[in-house]
Design goal:
Length: about 425
């Protein structure tokens, strides 16, 4: 009996979750029809002579719109009445969880959504909106917790997300509920109309991931006082990031144009990830980022790059974690120009290591004077025991086929 009751309640909640987007879609369709109605009425009142074929067509279309609007209003009313009935049935149930103190329920809510700064979706599983649909008490608690709403990832391209207008309205509500808390945002192909809404809250931006939405960042005026991490496809050829005194973590999908020291505050960065970068840009970047603690780069070598030995040494005194991947043909000599005295975790593509990988690594760590705790080899082709025999047992030697796999023991650079 209890199982049946739970099944019925779950069905009610699922039905409400289906009704809400259906209702929004009907309201959107009705709004469009009303706009067309207004346009037709203005045309009918101003057209001369009144007996033209266009006039008759407009009048017929207006009659059809009125019938269609009436059908939509009836369908919308049926859905609203059904939702009211379902919600009343849910509200009438007494759940043991509702007897918990508000503080405990609040802690459950925090653990339900992704750990900040990861972003929950605006709708669906792991969205705080789900919590607000359960019952009146949970809705009151959810709406009273701004920390639930401080991270968001608008689901553009999702058919259930409806139109950009509805997304904009949802986003405005979401930002308003976040109160004065710092914000984490992931935007993919966001319409420019969002820029004005989000720019008004630039003082609260803490973590930004922008894919094909970079105009939001580089068109903003003023400082970004809380910005700590930034994820972009690439840096613009021209343009400069607004002043961001706390920015320490940057992720770029690729960087194939010339390095520009003016684009970012490189000297204050402590963590950087670039999935694809040209050799000369990588060297310039490393020379400009002397405070790095974490670095992950995929280096793209060109035949015209020249001898690495002629490019000068690079010393990064604070770098603890380094991941080196090689894009394209094998290339040796890169480690010879690096001195990393604080290095503790090192993952490297075997293509960097030449014909005697163990000797190359021993020479590199000896020159740097570092005390490795973890060594990872990506794409190893020689027997694994060869690597393990070259290092003391205190060094954990690990292997992965490609860098696409999760690299254990290394975070994503967000500190």
């Amino acid at each position: 009996m209890l199982s049946t009751s739970k099944t019925a309640l779950a069905a009610d909640r699922a039905r409400i979750a289906d009704i809400d987007p259906q209702t929004l879609e009907l309201e959107c369709a009705l709004r469009v029809l009303r706009e067309e109605t207004n346009l037709l009425q203005r045309r009918l009142y101003t057209s001369r002579p009144p007996s033209t074929s266009a006039f008759d067509a407009d009048r017929a279309r207006l009659a059809a719109i009125r019938r269609q609007s009436l059908d939509i209003e009836r369908s919308s009313q049926v859905l609203r009445e059904e939702r009211t009935l379902l919600q009343a049935r849910l509200d009438a149930c007494t759940y043991p969880v509702l007897t918990l103190p508000t503080e405990v329920i609040s802690e459950i809510f925090i653990r339900f959504i992704p750990v900040y700064p990861k972003c929950p979706p605006l709708i669906g599983l792991h969205s705080p909106n789900v919590l607000a649909l359960i019952c009146r008490k949970w809705r009151e608690i959810a709406l009273s917790m701004p920390e639930l709403w401080r991270a968001f990832a608008p689901c553009f391209g999702n058919t259930r997300a409806l139109t950009p207008l509805h997304l904009l309205q949802a986003l405005e509500i979401w930002v308003r509920r976040s109160g004065s808390w710092p914000l984490s945002m992931e935007l993919f192909q966001a319409p420019k109309r969002f820029n004005k809404t989000l720019s008004a809250h630039r003082a609260r931006w803490e973590h930004l991931k922008l894919i094909h939405a970079e105009t939001l960042l580089f068109s903003v005026e003023g400082t970004l006082p809380l910005l700590r991490s930034l994820h972009l496809p690439m840096l613009p050829v021209a343009g400069r990031l607004p002043t961001a005194p706390l920015l320490q973590t940057v992720t770029l999908e690729f960087h194939f144009h010339n390095f520009s020291a003016a684009t970012l505050p490189w000297s204050q960065l402590t963590a950087i990830t670039v999935n694809r970068i040209l050799l000369h840009s990588c060297l310039d970047m490393l020379n400009a980022t002397g405070n790095l603690v974490y670095c992950r780069v995929g280096i793209h070598f060109n035949p015209s790059d020249g001898l690495l030995s002629s490019m000068g040494d690079i010393t990064l005194p604070y770098l603890e974690s380094l991941i080196l991947d090689l894009i394209g043909l094998p290339r040796t000599g890169f480690l010879d120009i690096l001195t990393l005295p604080a290095l503790r975790r090192f993952w490297v593509a075997e293509s960097f290591l030449g014909t005697n990988p163990t000797l190359t690594l021993i020479s590199f760590t000896s020159k740097s004077g570092c005390a490795l705790k973890e060594l990872g080899i990506i794409g190893s082709r020689i027997p694994r025991h060869v690597y393990r025999s070259g290092f003391p047992s205190s060094v954990s030697v690990r292997f992965k086929g490609t860098l696409d796999e999760t690299v254990p023991g290394i975070d994503d650079g967000r500190r």
